Amino acid sequence: MSGVAGQIVDRDFFARDPLELAPDLLGKLLVGPCGRGRIVEVEAYRGEEDPASHAFRGPTPRNRVMFGPAGHLYVYRSYGMHWCANVVASHPDRAGAVLIRALQPVGPIDEMSRRRPAARRPEDLANGPGKLCAALGITGDHDGLDLLSPDAGVRLADDGVEPPTSPTTGPRVGISVAADRPWRFSLPASRFRSRPVPVP
To answer: Cβ contacts of residue 93 below 8 Å, gap of 6+?
Structure first.
Protein backbone atom coordinates (compact mmCIF):
# COMPACT_ATOMS: atom_id res chain seq x y z
CA MET A 1 0.00 0.00 0.00
CA SER A 2 1.63 3.24 -1.12
CA GLY A 3 1.29 6.84 -0.13
CA VAL A 4 1.16 6.33 3.62
CA ALA A 5 0.87 9.73 5.29
CA GLY A 6 2.88 10.21 8.44
CA GLN A 7 5.29 7.31 7.96
CA ILE A 8 7.71 7.22 10.89
CA VAL A 9 11.18 7.78 9.44
CA ASP A 10 13.15 8.73 12.56
CA ARG A 11 15.50 5.87 13.48
CA ASP A 12 15.92 7.30 16.98
CA PHE A 13 12.23 6.67 17.65
CA PHE A 14 13.00 2.94 17.58
CA ALA A 15 16.58 2.98 18.95
CA ARG A 16 15.76 2.71 22.65
CA ASP A 17 14.82 0.25 25.34
CA PRO A 18 11.87 -1.93 24.25
CA LEU A 19 10.13 -0.97 27.50
CA GLU A 20 10.23 2.66 26.38
CA LEU A 21 9.27 2.01 22.77
CA ALA A 22 6.40 -0.39 23.48
CA PRO A 23 3.88 2.05 25.02
CA ASP A 24 4.74 4.69 22.41
CA LEU A 25 3.67 2.30 19.64
CA LEU A 26 0.12 2.27 20.99
CA GLY A 27 -2.11 4.30 18.70
CA LYS A 28 0.30 4.14 15.76
CA LEU A 29 -0.79 2.63 12.44
CA LEU A 30 0.70 -0.62 11.17
CA VAL A 31 0.37 -0.70 7.40
CA GLY A 32 0.77 -3.99 5.56
CA PRO A 33 0.39 -5.14 1.95
CA CYS A 34 -3.32 -5.90 2.39
CA GLY A 35 -4.58 -3.53 5.07
CA ARG A 36 -3.83 -1.34 8.03
CA GLY A 37 -4.76 -1.16 11.68
CA ARG A 38 -4.19 0.89 14.80
CA ILE A 39 -1.94 -0.75 17.36
CA VAL A 40 -3.83 -1.43 20.60
CA GLU A 41 -1.64 -4.04 22.30
CA VAL A 42 2.10 -4.81 22.37
CA GLU A 43 4.66 -6.76 24.38
CA ALA A 44 8.26 -5.71 25.12
CA TYR A 45 11.12 -8.21 24.91
CA ARG A 46 14.63 -7.30 25.94
CA GLY A 47 17.76 -9.15 24.89
CA GLU A 48 20.06 -11.54 26.69
CA GLU A 49 18.78 -10.49 30.14
CA ASP A 50 15.20 -11.51 29.28
CA PRO A 51 14.73 -15.32 29.42
CA ALA A 52 11.45 -15.03 27.49
CA SER A 53 13.14 -13.27 24.57
CA HIS A 54 14.27 -15.00 21.39
CA ALA A 55 17.55 -13.12 21.89
CA PHE A 56 18.19 -14.62 25.35
CA ARG A 57 20.80 -17.15 24.16
CA GLY A 58 22.47 -14.83 21.68
CA PRO A 59 22.22 -14.43 17.91
CA THR A 60 21.10 -17.27 15.66
CA PRO A 61 20.06 -17.41 12.00
CA ARG A 62 16.44 -17.14 13.15
CA ASN A 63 16.76 -14.11 15.44
CA ARG A 64 19.63 -12.27 13.75
CA VAL A 65 17.35 -9.32 12.90
CA MET A 66 16.89 -8.61 16.62
CA PHE A 67 20.62 -7.88 16.86
CA GLY A 68 20.62 -5.49 13.92
CA PRO A 69 19.58 -1.85 13.53
CA ALA A 70 16.44 -0.62 15.24
CA GLY A 71 13.39 0.06 13.11
CA HIS A 72 13.46 -3.22 11.21
CA LEU A 73 10.76 -5.87 11.19
CA TYR A 74 11.43 -9.22 12.88
CA VAL A 75 8.94 -11.82 11.65
CA TYR A 76 8.90 -15.41 12.88
CA ARG A 77 6.53 -18.36 12.69
CA SER A 78 4.87 -19.43 15.94
CA TYR A 79 4.11 -23.12 16.51
CA GLY A 80 4.87 -23.71 12.84
CA MET A 81 1.58 -22.05 11.88
CA HIS A 82 1.24 -18.31 12.47
CA TRP A 83 3.46 -15.39 11.51
CA CYS A 84 4.21 -12.87 14.27
CA ALA A 85 5.53 -9.34 13.65
CA ASN A 86 7.95 -7.49 15.92
CA VAL A 87 9.56 -4.06 15.73
CA VAL A 88 13.29 -4.17 16.50
CA ALA A 89 14.28 -1.79 19.29
CA SER A 90 17.53 -0.91 21.12
CA HIS A 91 20.93 -0.53 19.45
CA PRO A 92 22.91 -2.92 17.21
CA ASP A 93 25.00 -4.22 20.14
CA ARG A 94 21.97 -4.74 22.38
CA ALA A 95 19.06 -6.81 21.12
CA GLY A 96 15.39 -6.10 21.77
CA ALA A 97 12.02 -6.04 20.08
CA VAL A 98 8.35 -5.22 20.58
CA LEU A 99 5.76 -7.80 19.54
CA ILE A 100 2.63 -6.34 17.95
CA ARG A 101 -0.17 -8.27 19.67
CA ALA A 102 -3.39 -6.67 18.43
CA LEU A 103 -4.79 -4.02 16.09
CA GLN A 104 -8.01 -2.12 15.65
CA PRO A 105 -8.73 -2.66 11.93
CA VAL A 106 -8.78 0.51 9.85
CA GLY A 107 -9.21 -0.97 6.39
CA PRO A 108 -9.89 -2.04 3.84
CA ILE A 109 -12.17 -4.15 6.02
CA ASP A 110 -13.47 -6.23 3.11
CA GLU A 111 -9.99 -7.38 2.16
CA MET A 112 -8.96 -8.03 5.76
CA SER A 113 -12.16 -10.05 6.29
CA ARG A 114 -11.47 -12.06 3.15
CA ARG A 115 -8.08 -12.97 4.54
CA ARG A 116 -9.58 -13.85 7.93
CA PRO A 117 -12.82 -15.75 7.09
CA ALA A 118 -13.04 -17.23 10.59
CA ALA A 119 -13.50 -13.76 12.10
CA ARG A 120 -17.19 -13.14 12.80
CA ARG A 121 -16.78 -9.58 14.13
CA PRO A 122 -14.44 -6.66 13.39
CA GLU A 123 -13.01 -7.16 16.88
CA ASP A 124 -11.78 -10.61 15.85
CA LEU A 125 -9.99 -9.63 12.64
CA ALA A 126 -6.64 -8.70 14.22
CA ASN A 127 -6.89 -9.47 17.95
CA GLY A 128 -3.79 -11.63 18.12
CA PRO A 129 -0.27 -11.67 16.63
CA GLY A 130 -1.03 -14.37 14.06
CA LYS A 131 -4.42 -12.93 13.22
CA LEU A 132 -3.12 -9.45 12.47
CA CYS A 133 -0.34 -10.79 10.25
CA ALA A 134 -2.88 -12.83 8.30
CA ALA A 135 -5.24 -9.85 7.97
CA LEU A 136 -2.50 -7.47 6.79
CA GLY A 137 -0.63 -9.97 4.61
CA ILE A 138 2.58 -9.93 6.67
CA THR A 139 4.70 -13.08 6.20
CA GLY A 140 8.23 -14.35 6.65
CA ASP A 141 9.14 -12.61 3.40
CA HIS A 142 9.02 -9.36 5.38
CA ASP A 143 11.56 -10.49 8.00
CA GLY A 144 14.39 -7.96 8.16
CA LEU A 145 12.46 -5.28 6.26
CA ASP A 146 13.42 -1.68 7.09
CA LEU A 147 10.24 0.01 8.30
CA LEU A 148 11.73 3.42 7.49
CA SER A 149 12.18 2.70 3.79
CA PRO A 150 9.83 4.77 1.59
CA ASP A 151 8.99 1.73 -0.53
CA ALA A 152 8.77 -0.83 2.28
CA GLY A 153 5.89 -3.28 2.03
CA VAL A 154 5.19 -2.83 5.75
CA ARG A 155 5.34 0.53 7.50
CA LEU A 156 4.51 2.29 10.73
CA ALA A 157 2.67 5.60 10.51
CA ASP A 158 1.72 8.34 12.93
CA ASP A 159 -1.55 10.10 12.14
CA GLY A 160 -1.50 12.28 15.24
CA VAL A 161 -3.18 9.95 17.74
CA GLU A 162 -1.29 10.34 21.00
CA PRO A 163 -0.30 7.23 22.97
CA PRO A 164 -2.11 6.88 26.30
CA THR A 165 -0.51 8.58 29.29
CA SER A 166 -1.39 5.56 31.44
CA PRO A 167 -1.52 2.41 29.31
CA THR A 168 -2.88 -0.79 30.78
CA THR A 169 -0.04 -3.13 31.75
CA GLY A 170 0.06 -6.81 32.56
CA PRO A 171 2.02 -10.03 32.11
CA ARG A 172 3.07 -11.21 28.68
CA VAL A 173 1.03 -13.98 27.08
CA GLY A 174 2.02 -17.54 26.23
CA ILE A 175 5.41 -17.69 27.95
CA SER A 176 6.62 -19.99 30.71
CA VAL A 177 9.55 -17.91 32.01
CA ALA A 178 9.67 -14.32 33.27
CA ALA A 179 5.88 -14.51 33.14
CA ASP A 180 5.47 -12.14 36.08
CA ARG A 181 6.99 -9.13 34.34
CA PRO A 182 4.28 -6.58 33.41
CA TRP A 183 5.67 -5.94 29.94
CA ARG A 184 2.41 -6.15 28.00
CA PHE A 185 0.94 -2.73 27.19
CA SER A 186 -2.49 -1.96 25.76
CA LEU A 187 -4.95 0.84 25.16
CA PRO A 188 -7.22 0.97 28.19
CA ALA A 189 -10.59 -0.72 27.65
CA SER A 190 -10.00 -1.37 23.94
CA ARG A 191 -12.33 -4.10 22.73
CA PHE A 192 -9.79 -5.02 20.05
CA ARG A 193 -7.19 -6.41 22.48
CA SER A 194 -6.23 -10.07 22.24
CA ARG A 195 -7.36 -10.73 25.78
CA PRO A 196 -8.16 -8.73 28.91
CA VAL A 197 -5.41 -7.80 31.34
CA PRO A 198 -5.75 -9.57 34.71
CA VAL A 199 -6.77 -7.34 37.59
CA PRO A 200 -4.19 -7.58 40.41
So the answer is: none
